[in-house]
Every structure is written in C-alpha cells, then in structure tokens.
Amino acid sequence: MNSHALIDELKTLLEPGKVLTDAASLDTYGKDWTKQYAPAPSAIAFPKTTEQVQAIVRWANQRQVALVPSGGRTGLSAAAVAANGEVVVSFDYMNKVLDFNATDRTVVCQPGVITKQLQNLAEENGLYYPVDFASSGSSQIGGNIGTNAGGIKVIRYGMTRNWVAGLKVVTGQGDLLELNKDLVKNATGYDLRQLFIGAEGTLGFIVEATMRLDRAPKNLTAMVLGTADFDAIMPVLHAFQGKLDLTAFEFFSDKALAKVLGRGDVPAPFETACPFYALLEFEATTDDIADTALATFEHCVEQGWVLDGVMSQSEQQLRNLWKLREYISETISHWVPYKNDISVTISKVPAFLREIDAIVSERYPAFDVLWYGHIGDGNLHLNILKPEHMDKDAFFAECALVNTEVFETVRKYNGSISAEHGVGMVKRDYLQYSRSPVEIQYMKAMKAVFDPNGVMNPGKIFSI
What's the rounded Cα separation, in Å, for the pair 20 and 57? Predict the structure, then answer.
C-alpha cells in the first residue's frame, strides 16, 4: 500500500482534520529542542481519546508503520524527533485534568496537560507539584514521565518517577494497561509502571497519569553566593546541608551568568565578579532559620569559600535570583549549543568536573564552554557554544569527536551519560558507557515483549 493510501486509512481512525501532512506541521511536530536531526515525518496524528490511541497503534502494527510520540517537544535527546518518515502521535488534544482528590493529594491527568498547569492547579488547592524546570510552561506531563524529567528541585523532591501514583498506557500491541491503580502500597509482583517511566515511548504510549502532590512550601528563600573557585562549591553545599533542609542547590559559571546578564532584563546579584556561583533555596519559616542561613553564609566567607552573596527579601527578589539560573538554557539557545547532561555521585563531582573541563578545554580552546547544573544531586550540564561563523553540522561533528573521551570519564566515575534528558537518538550510540551489555540485552528483551513489531518510537534508546 502506498503512502497516500496509508494516510487515508489513518484519517479514518480520527476525527476530521486531526491528521496533518502540510510542510509546516511536519516540521513543527517532527522535532524537539535538539538541532542535530532534520524532521521528516510522514504525518501528524492528533488523537483525543484512549480508544483512538489504541486504534492508531493497532493500525501501525498491521501496516508496519513507525510511531513517534510528541508532547511539548522540549526534549533535548531527540526522543521525539521523527527523522525517518514516521507518523507522529501528538497528545495536544488529550490535555484535560480528569480528577483532583484532596484527600489522596492526587491529580488525574491526560498526557497533554502542561506541567505549569498542574503546578497551578496544585497551588490553587493549597498544595504543590515540585517537579520544575525552565520548560514547565510548555512541556507536557506525558513527556515528563516518558523521560523521567528532573529539574531544579531534585535534591529535595526527587525525579518525576517519585510523583507518579498510577498510569494507564497503551502498549506497542495496542493493549490498555492500568498500572498500580494509584496505590501507595502495592506488593503484588512487578511494578510495570516503573518500566514506562523513562522509556521514551519505546514500550507504549501514556494515555493517563495520576500524579501525587505535596504540601506547599512556606516562605521560600533563595541565596546566590559567589565562590572563589569550583572546589569551594562542595564545602558550601555541605555547610548549608548541615544546617538547613534545602529545596534546591544549583550552580553556574561566570560565562553562563554573563550570557543571562547580556539580555538586559535580569539584574546582577551583586557587584563582585566570581568564577562560579551557587544558588540555594530553603524554607525560611522562622526568623531562626533565616538567621542560621546568614550565619552559615558568614562561616563560608570566613573559610574563603564565598566571596559575596545575597539573600532574597521578597517574592520578587526570589524570582529575580532564580532567573539567573533558569534563563541560561533559553538564553544560550541563540548560539545553538552542543549539550551534555551528565551525572556522578555528589562526592565525585569536583574531581569529575576537573577532568571533563580539562578534556574540553584542550580540545576546544576557541569555543565558549559554559557549565551549570543541579550540583546538589550530582548533575552537570556541559554546553559548548557554536561560533556565529561556523556551519551547524560541522560544529556538531567537531563536538562529537570528544564524546568518547567524555563518556569514558563518565564510565570511570560510574556516572550516567544522561542524567535527566533521556537517551533518544543523541545518546543512543553511547548507551554502553552507562549500561552493561547484559543490561542492554534485557532492555531489548523487554521492548520485544511490549512492542514485538518494533513500531513504538524505533531507533530511540538503542537500535534494534
């Protein structure tokens, strides 16, 4: 059957106008935030119900058509890129909040619910959804679950995985599974829910999720501290963790800060120039806690770890301090950065970063290299910026030359080549640096069980 006939068949499964093939739609929905791969889908399908998702998957099995899930398309691993004629399944129209339960502190969402929408709903009900990151205004819950999204609050609240009470999924065979049924305690064999979290749509599509909520934090307060060098950041972390329950601990380099300040809409935290900065957050519920934070700051200054600092005195100042960190990714996107999202255990971070920085500095002395990340949980973001005059493909090819050295170092430290962005196509060929051959074989075997015909997001995580 030719491609036109296949698309005509697909249209019969959905409502009128919910299959698009125009060039603009193919380009928009066929990509995510990565720049390495050109989008080339054959069609974009917009189901509105679980039954329509099942119909699409069963049709794909019958006709051997590859499917790629699409949420907010904010991913950075090319897990949502359709580069080989696949049909993109967009969840934009499955975007309803189906239920809120104040007693259980849960919200039942369709996969297309925007992360910020869930955060706002929680806030309106005196609760809190703590998974947060720069793309919260456009990312979707289904995509967050599919990549096990992390963000800026992991040190206190953990990853998306920690907040998924239950899932409904359509497997690669078109079966509907209801996983865990929102239970807190459930000791009845394998927890298949956990398999689908972080699976990037390779086992099936999430069609409904029950998300847990938490109590709302009180009087969140941030401090931005300028450090004398990178080695000072970890003693600062230990000092504050010994005195306060931190909700976040981030870091960024002076080069990253300079890019944000260059926007002209974010004020500098203080006048002292520092090579690295730490941003920490905590609940200042009493004057004693605020006093403890200031006393710890003074101790860090006395030790020579901190050169200067500021503590927020209002919600507006809190937001302004967070902009220094949260605006980095958006700001540097103008330079088409080559990104690496890597992690090690927290105690290994200083030595690990020194080795990686030495490799990158030696190989790319003419490129701008920016560091930032969630250092409180061991997650570092390495960003190499493309020079204005350089061709994009040539730039990515040049950066890829050092991947083996970087990932060999990751393996040496028993780290991860992808801390929170997923594997997709970007890290697919390097999976062996974080997973053993035996693990990969078991992963492939699990995919074969849920997706025997290989129609669910093929070529992502690993090649089959």
Answer: 17
Q: Binning pLDDT at 50, 70 and 90, where does residue 226 land?
A: very high
- Distance of alpha carbon 212 from alpha carbon 215, whole angstroms: 10
Pair of tokens at residue 83: 């580069």
Check pLDDT > 90 for residue 352: yes
In sequence order, the β-bridge partners of residue 204 are 171
CA 87 to chain centre: 24
Are 170 and 157 in contact, with CB atoms under 8 Å apart?
A: no
At the top level of CATH, the class of 3-93 is alpha beta
| Residue 166 bridge partners (DSSP) | 210
Domain 336-447 classification at class level: alpha beta
Per the CB < 8 A criterion, the answer to whether 198 and 163 are in contact is no
Domain with CATH 3.30.465.10 in the chain: 97-215
Q: Which two tokens stand for residue 292?
A: 């403890």
CATH class, 97-215 region: alpha beta
Spatial distance between the Cα atoms of 208 and 113, rounded to a whole number of angstroms: 10
Q: How would residue 35 be classed by pLDDT, with cut points 50, 70 and 90?
A: confident
Spatial CA neighbour of 324 closest among 375, 248, 261 = 261
Coil, strand or helix: which one is 400?
A: helix
Residue closest to 244 by CA, chosen among 317, 302, 299: 299
Residue 31 backbone phi and psi in degrees, to 5:
-135, 170
CATH ID of 220-332, from 3.40.50.300, 1.10.287.130, 3.40.47.10, 3.30.70.2190: 3.30.70.2190
What are the angstrom distances between the C-alpha of 167 and each of 80, 149, 191, 196, 351? Answer: 20, 16, 11, 9, 40
pLDDT of residue 262: 95
Q: Any idea what DSSP says for residue 230?
A: G
Q: Which part of the chain has CATH 3.30.70.2190?
A: 220-332
- Crossing angle (nearest 10°) for helices 287-302 and 233-241: 150
pTM score = 0.94
Whether 52 and 14 have beta carbons less than 8 Å apart is answered as: yes
> pLDDT tens, 107-120?
999 999 999 999 99
d(CA 309, CA 233): 13
Look up residue 424 and give its two tokens. 């997709």
Angle at 159 between CA 236 and CA 124, to 5 degrees: 100
How many other CB atoms are found less than 10 A from the CB of residue 133? 19
Region(s) of the chain under CATH 3.30.43.10: 3-93
- Where are the domain boundaries for CATH 3.30.70.2740 in the chain? 336-447
User: In this structure, are residues 176 and 445 in contact, taking their beta carbons and an 8 Å threshold?
Assistant: no
